[in-house]
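F.,

This is the one I mentioned.
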């Protein structure tokens, strides 16, 4: 598939991505219109996060995407990788926060290894409320 760039954008635009992007933007506008015309519908009191994960072929490429988006957002990059965390930038638009996140490959592999045990843990429904309810 051919990638195209738009004027002023450092990101390649892939035609299939344009459809997804259009659907997201249209959906957000429709939701905003719905909430505005239906004031009785509850919304999260503290807002919402709109998380986007940079998924390039390697850690360097994903971190570069975060850097580029941070520049567009006018936001600082937070680098929690030295303590086993993520590399991310965010900007709030009222009570909605857009966050671009890079999860280092090592963190993802550790998480996958940890979660590989999830099928070996089950809740013991017969446990009374005095215990923790977990059985291995």
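My design for it:
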């Amino acid at each position: 598939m051919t990638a195209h760039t738009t004027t002023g954008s450092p990101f390649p635009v892939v035609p299939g991505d344009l459809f997804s992007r259009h659907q997201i933007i249209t959906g957000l506008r429709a939701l905003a219109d719905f909430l505005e015309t239906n004031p009785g519908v509850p919304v999260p009191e503290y807002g919402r996060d709109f998380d986007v994960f940079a998924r390039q072929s390697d850690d360097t490429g994903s971190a570069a995407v975060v850097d580029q988006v941070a520049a567009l957002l006018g936001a600082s990059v937070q680098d929690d990788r030295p303590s086993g965390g993520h590399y991310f930038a965010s900007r709030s638009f009222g009570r909605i926060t857009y966050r671009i996140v890079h999860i280092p490959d090592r963190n993802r592999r550790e998480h996958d290894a940890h979660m590989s045990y999830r099928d070996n843990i089950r809740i013991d429904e017969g446990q009374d409320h005095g215990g923790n309810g977990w059985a291995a």
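The first strand starts at residue 4 and ends at 5.

Talk soon.
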